[in-house]
Give the backbone structure.
Amino acid sequence: MATTSNNPPLLEVKNLRVEFPTRRGTLLAVDDVSFDIAPGEVLGVVGESGAGKSLTGNAIIGLLEPPGRIAAGEIRLEGRRIDNLPYEEMRKIRGARIGAIFQDPLTSLNPLYSVGRQLVETIQTHLPLSGSEARKRALDLLKEVGIPGAENRIDHYPHQFSGGMRQRVVIALALCAGPRLIVADEPTTALDVSIQAQIIALLKRLCREHATAVMLVTHDMGVIAETADRVAVMYAGRIVEVGPVRDVVKHAKHPYTKGLMGSIPSLGVRHDRLTQIDGAMPRLTEIPPGCAFNPRCIERGQRCLVERPDLMSAGTSRAACWLHDRGGVGAPVAQELVDA
Amino acid sequence: MATSSALGGWLHRVTDSDVWWSFKSSPMTVAAAAVTFFIIAVAFLSPVLAPHTPFDPATLSLSDGLKPPVLISDDGDWTFPLGTDDQGRDILSSIMYGTRLSLEVGFASVIFAMVLGIALGLVSGYFGGTIDAVIMRIADVQLTFPAILVALLIDGVVRGLISVQRHDEIALFVIVGAIGLSFWVSYARTVRGSVMVEKNKEYVQAARVIGLSPVLIMIRHVLPNVTGPVLVIATLNLGLAIITEATLSFLGVGLPSTEPSLGTLIRLGNEVLQSGDWWITVFPGITLAALVLGVNLLGDWLRDALNPKLR
Amino acid sequence: MPDVPLPAGNANQFVRIAGLKRYFDVSAPWLVRALENRPRQIVQAVDGIDIEIAKGETFSLVGESGCGKSTVARLVVGLYTPTAGSIEFDGNDMAARHSRSDMAALRRRMQMIFQDPFASLNPRWRVFDIIAEPIRAFGLSSGKADLERRVGELLRQVKLTPADGRKYPHEFSGGQRQRISIARALASEPEFLVCDEPTSALDVSVQAQILNLMVDLQRRLQLTYLFISHNLAVVYHISTRVGVMYLGRLVEVAPTDTLFRRPKHPYTRMLLDTIPDLDMTGRQRAPVAGEVPSPINPPSGCTFHPRCPFANERCKIERPQALPIEGGTVACHAIEEGRLPIEDRSYAAAG
């Protein structure tokens, strides 16, 4: 179990499956994904493009774009199922209990309304406050997220803010109704490096102060290393490893995670060649049987070709890899070398 | 051998594509396509299929004049299934030849407008600056005139300049030119917009790094990427061009009665409409409507099919 | 094509950029300005850059968005003409009047790789034609069979297959398209490649493959790289020397080890502080105040002074000159005046 204390988990995702019916057949984009988030915890969900992490986030907020749909599984927020709610019910939950932060601050804010108006509107939708109370709350939030001169800027329009400032406004918007969980999808990717550091620090601090849990979806391992308490690594629609962030980053148990960490250039010993994983993540239509990673895995064995591993205990983390099973991987099979 | 396998490969790509699938899954589009292509096929095969040659005066006889359509007349004569006009010309054959002319004018004027519009749009979008400003201002001025008016203007000028017989001979070219000149603006603007987007893309910059001349880059690199919207406009314009030509002919300033198009036929029939000989106007009218409707429906479908956001 | 012998520079100054400036006029149209009495607005995208690249080395230009590094890349390959300053390639001034064939011969020797793998290949062309285009344009092949051989060889060099030539770009992944871009850039047998953020749009594992490929190719074909990036960690691994840009100016240039171990300019230090700590050493990322100002209205004097903890009065008025120091240069008053000590940094994992 992911939660260590006796508190029930804030968010429980069980065996989630997200499908896309297309004319060429049904694509399985998220395949039997299960994880929990404890209250106040920051869970990082990391993976490369196409791994299914954004779709998982969207499924939780209830913003899957049709024809994508949740085909199986359960999502429970504070014990209550939210994946099968009708649109109106989900709308009330979104904002009030779950907040969202998306990648592009330009499109997250309505360019035609002032920042203050958008905040007040969201606040009043979910909280029984009067207009002036809501505006005061909005002002307080803007100050909390570090907008200088908030009293004036509350009536400014989004285009009058820079990228970093806009993302701060988006964070304020996500927090304004006091949600217990925030789903942040690549919140810093579109920002400059120096601003990224600021925004990450802000997010961390605010969530700790408001006791809000965060599901942080990103491809940037650096952001995860700095912000998350635990991290789940996704590959081809599945979770391949999950555990405390320090353990996963420094002592990865799944060969994909090991390869991924090796590919990331970092300061320290200077190498000419980065570790590379040959090949590419399979397309949704071409996921191999057995372990999805097996064609690219240097440690694979016979068992990996046919049996799909579930998450199993591997020290302090859990990894979906037969290497950690008593039965092992079977006879070694040479890797098929195919470049991306 | 190589060409047939290349053709087979291309055919496979077409039938496997999203566009074909969206075509097959819309019954209305399939019906529209069937009707349109049927009309076009019959029209272009009219020398072979038409039972009579209505515009050869030698084959006409006034005694055949004003015969009603076979199904409503007392002495059903299948020689003239849709009846005849006052000169004894078979309506069915007239429609076939007339449709062919309407289509010729339609296609020719669309192609003319397309070539002119694409060329000007390419130049305008790629070079920008003063050239762009000049071309766009000319386009703006042109847009303030309705197409009919422009066509009337050009036609009137030409008529004033040359004799009536000579005019009848070149009427086709004058009409094509007039209609084409009134339509080029939409192509130019669309292409200009697409060019302005494409020219900043890295593949164009890569071509510039190699040192290719702007003309080569425009034709080889940019043009193939801006043809999508052009195709849609062309299909929709075809219907409009046919109607415009029909209107001009109806007004008497289009194709002459020696070489009538559908519009001319409608006009000729209109003159005897009062006396109750309705078939001379109505059948060409129905054909015109069916053709333009079919073309427009196809254009609508094409626009939606080529729109990547809707796929 | 017979090669007209052009003057050759010395190997240390294979590419020499001096006083390079590029200004963009983003003023409102004349009528609007006249009616609303608005001034002209000029963006000083590149404001006086001096760089020397030796043959065979990888010179990286780093900075955040808006600093002008992409503009420098485009100036070097000739996509923009400089407002001032000069670019010399192997001793030849690129702005001087050359005959068409001389110019073509010079262009052949330098090529560019772009950032966006989706926009850098013409979606309507087959891969074969995309790669063959430079060969055809420079007249390098002796016939159809030779052309096919060359293109096949280039595809193999980037770890694709000759059969891939028949496909269209959309049938490939981002990493594969970037390989096709590299193959196209190599088609004219260049000596100098300008790489504008070639891996920024790729996933991390694909980035590693492409970077390794580029390093291998450099060794095998003796290429010189001008590498533009905003990712300091990538730059750390592949560069010989690094230049740091801020708002159109070079604030520091140094050999890679020196830059990372002993950063001098306050902006360089700040940038290094923003690199995430993947070795989990617990090193604190010190978030820096402020944001990059708009290049239309840059601050006076040293453009970094509003964000600099070490700025004094002189920094607000006087633009600092580039001082030679420890094998590189720095443009900073605080360093010049000795106010700012230079310390060693280490990034080794704590344990």
